[in-house]
Protein: TBC1 domain family member 8B
Amino acid sequence: MWLNPEEVLLKNALKLWVTEKSNDFFLLQRRRGHGDSGGKFTGLLVGALDTVLDSNARVTPFRILLQVPGSQVSWAIACGAAVEEMNRHWDWLVQNLLHSLSVFENKEDVASFVKGKVKGLIAEEVRGRQAAQEEDPEKFRGSLLKFELRFGLPSSEKLVTTYSCCCWKGRVPRQGWLYLSINHMAFYSFLLGKEVKFVIPWAEVTRLERISTGLMTDMVRVTTRQRQRDFSMFLSMDEAFRFMCQLADIALRRLLDSGGLELDRELQQTSNVTKRISYYSLLRVLEQQALRAYVLALFRLPRGERLQEAALCSMWTPHARCHTPGTLYTTDRYLGFSSRDEGRCSVLIPLSEVISVEKAESTSVLPSPVIISVRSKKAFQLIELQDRDSLVDSLTTRLRSLQWRHSTFRSRKSLVCYSTAPYKSVSNHTHNTSLPLRHTVNPDALMACYQHSEPDPNNCTSTMEQMKERLWEEHFSEYGRGIHMFRTEKIQKLVAMGIPESLRGELWMTFSDASSELASHPDYYTGLVAESMGQSSLATEEIERDLHRSLPDHPAFQNVTGIAALRRVLTAYAHRNPKIGYCQSMNILASVLLLYTKEEEAFWLLVTVCERMLPDYFNRRVIGAQVDQSVFEELIRERLPELAEHIPDLSPLSTISLSWFLTLFLSVLPFRSAVCVVDCFFFHGTKAIFQLGLAVLEANAAALCSSADDGQALMVLTGFLDQVTDNDDPSSPASQPPSSPSGEEGNPPVEQHTLITDLITDSYEKFGDLTVKQIESLRCRHRIQVLQAHEDTTKENAVGLNHIYDLFKTEHFINLYWGEGSTTVALQTHDPSRPYVDQYRVDRAQFKSLYVLLVPWLCGLHTDTVAHRTFTLLDQDRDSFITFREFAGWLDTLYCKELNEKIRLLYCLHIPPGYCDIIDFCCIPQREFIQFCKTLYSMFHGNPDENELFQAIATVTSLVLQIGEVGHRSRCSGSEVSSDGGTEDEVEENHREGSRDHPVFSTKEEGGTGKSLGLENQSEWTVSYAQILASLLTEQQLVNFFEKPMDLSAKVAQVMPPPCVSISCLLPKN
Structure:
C-alpha cells in the first residue's frame, strides 16, 4: 500500500534490507530474512527479531523508497507483505513518473513532486474504500446493533465509527471495541468470562492527549473530572485520535461555549441525522468539517463560508514556468489554490472577480484543463482536474447567481449583504461635507498628514523606502497585483523586510481580502456611522474612555481629526456587531489601521481581524486567545524543550504572551517595529504571531532559565522587546553612524539592539515549518481543556452547590440529547453567551424528577401538584424552562433560610406568581387556604412526630379559620353585598377571567372540576400571609419542624451516581 512519505536514513538501514530493483529515483527493497533460501545468519537474526516483535512494531517485508541522487536521506513511499502488490506499485512509478522526473533540475522539486503524487494516490484509495464500505452496509448494521444492545442508549444516539483497541487498567490491557458516537465514547470488552463496559459523554471530557509510557510507546489518554483511561493498539491511531478530538470539540462548543464562539450549524445538525444514514456518511461529515475549518483558517475566509469542493489539480505558475501540484478549494464566494507543501504557493480568487470558468481541450500534455478568467485580464490554468465537468458546472452556476445578484442590487442601489457576517441593512447615506466632524468620514490615511518619525537628515529612510518600493513593483510585474496575486516564499521575504509605507494600506487590504468586502458593500460604512453616532450604550461609554489612550504619543491622535475618526470606526463596529461590541485592545488596533488606510478601509480591516483572522478573541472571555495561549504552551514544550524543562509551569509565560496575541505586539514593541509585525500578521495570520513569540522566547531562553521568579522573567522579556528596533527609523540606534566601542574613554557602553527584520527572519527560518493545519489541530484539542477549565472556574466563583450543579447539568444534557417534545425548543433557545448558572436549564418534567430527588419534604399524592406549582412559580419569564440560578435559589430557601421564608414560599404557591412581590398586601380565599393546609398535612407523612404535627396543624387551621371568619363578618357588615356572595362587581369579574388560565390556578392536576382559583373581593373570606405565619408560630411543634437543620450534601450523596457512572446510567432504558 502507499504510505505518507517518511524519511529513511539509508546508511543505517542497508544491513537490514536487500535491494531487489533500482533506478535513478526509486528502490524496491526486501527485508532480510524474508524469502532467503540460503539461511544466512544475518537474515535469520532479522527474521527472528521481526517474529517476536509486537504486531504494532513489526516491519512489512517489502518497501519502495524515493531516493534523490547525492543524498543520504530517502523517503519510504510504499510497503507491503506481497511481492505482487509491490511490483504493481513499482510498475506504476516507472510508467507514470520516471520520465517526468528526469526534467527536474532541483532535487527538492523531485522529492516534492513525488510526495505530492503519492499523497494524491492515498486520498484516492481512502475514498475508494469508503465507497466500497457504503455499498455493503452489513458491517455497519452489525456494529450499530451491538452498540444499541450493549449500552442501552436512546435510539436517537448516532454511531459514528468503531475501533478495535485495548483499554488499560493499571498494567493490565483489555482487548475490546471502542464506539464513537455523536455524544459519547463507549468501550466494551468480554474476555475470559469477564465483561467490562463504560460510557463517557464527550461533554465530560476535560483532556485528550497522546502519551508514551513504559508499556506502550503510543497511547490515547482520555481524562474526565473523575478519572482517566488509556487506550492503545489502534490499527489507525491518527484517525481515531483525530475523530475523538473533533467529536469532543463539537460537543463542548455546542454545550459549554459561553464566550461567543459561533456554533457551526451543520455540526449541530449532526445530532439530528436520520438513522438511515450510515456512519460512513457521518465520518464524511466530520472529515468535511475538519477540512472546512482548515480552509477557512488557511485563506482567512468569513466564518459563514461553506466548503463546496476540494479537488486535486495542478496550476500553471508563470513565475516558476511549470504547473504546481496542489488542491483547489471552492466555497460559496471564493476559489482558493494551495500547493501540496503549504506556504510554497497559494492563490485566492473571490468569485466576484471571476468573469468566466471554461473547459479547454484536453491533451496528453494538458489533461483536463480549466481556464479561470478574472477582471484584471488575467487567466489561471488548472490541469489534471478529476470530475472536471461537475466542478465547472457547479462553479458556473454559482458565478451566474452571484453576477445576477450584483446586477440586481446595484440597479436598486440596495445595501443587502451577500456574506453571512452580521451585516445590518442601513440607509443609503452618502458622504456629505456639510455634516459635522464627528459624522464626516475621513477620505485619507492619517499618516499622510501626521508623521510620527523624527526628521532624517541623512535621508536614509527615504532611500530605504524607494528601494522597497522598487522591489515590490518588480514583484508585482512577475507575480501579479491585487487580491489574486501568487503568494509565494518570495513575497514572504519581502514582507519580512517591512512593507513600504506607500503600499502598506493597499497590501493589508489585499492580504486580508478586506478589499473584496469593501467593494461588495458600498456606502455600508457611511450608513453605519450615520446610524450609530450619537447613540449611547455601554460600548460607546467604554470607547469614549479609551479614545485618548490609543497611541497617545502619535501626533495623529493628539488632535480632533484622529480622535473623531477612531470614534467613528469603533462605534460603527460596535453597532454592526453588538455581540462583540467593543473590547479592550480594539482601540490600539484600529488606531494603527487608521494611520495607513482610509477610514472606510480601516473599518473593513477591523471587521476582518475581529471576525476572520482572530475569531473569538474580542469578547468578554477571550476564549480564542486563551485557546491560543494553551497551544503556545505546547509549542514551547515541543520547540523549546530546554526552556520548558527549566520552567515546568509555563502559565506565567502565557500570561505575558497574551498581550502579544491580543494586540499583535503593538503594546510591547516600539511603534515602527510593531507595524512590521502587523505586516506579517496580515500575510500569514496568527501563524506569524506564534512564530515570532517562539523566536522571542528562544532569544531570551538563557536569561529566562536563570530568572528567579515570574517578575524577573517579565522584566527580561520587556527589556528585550523595548530594544527591538526598525532600521528604517532614523531615531533608532541601528540607523545611526557606528560609535566607539564600549570601554573607550569618554564613551558609555553601547546598548545592544535587535532589528525587527532580523527577528522576523529568524522566526521564519527556525519555526517556519509550523503550518496552519498543525495549528488548527492543536486548537481543536486545546479548546476542550480551555472550555472545561473555564466552566470549572465560573462554577466555583458563581455557586457553591457543585454536586447540585453537576446533577442539574446532567438533566440539561439529557434534555438536549434525547428529550422529546421540548428538545427542539431547548436547542433553539439555548444561548451559549449566558453565564453558566443561566445557561443550563430544565423543563417541567425534568424539574419534577429533580424535585422528588432533592426536596426535603415530599407531599405524598400531593407531590406532583406542588412540584407543578413550584415550577410555575420559578419560571419567571414564562418560557417553560427554569435556570440553575432559579433552581439553586429555591433549594437555598428550603434548606438554609429562616422559618418565615419557608412559609412565605409555601404561601406563594397558592397565589398568582405576579403577586409574590406584594405578598404582605395579598390575601388568599378560603379554598386556597384549605389547599395550603393540605400541602402542610401531606408534608408530615412518615415523620416520627407525625401525630403531634397533625394535631398542631389542626389547631392552626381552626385558629386561622376563626380569624378569617371574623374578618369576613366585619367586611360584610359594611358592604351591600348579599350574604351568599352572589353579587360581584365588574372589576372582580375581570380579575377572575384574567387569572383563570394561569397554570398555578389550574385544578386539572388536583383532580378537581371546580372553578378557577383567584383572589376574592373584599366581601369574601380571606386570610393574609401575616395571619398564617403568626398562627403557625403559636405551635412549637411546627416551629421545630421548619427550623430543624437539614443537610443538603447528605441528600445529594444519596441520589448522585458514583464517580465512575456517567450520564447514560441515569437514562431510562428503551
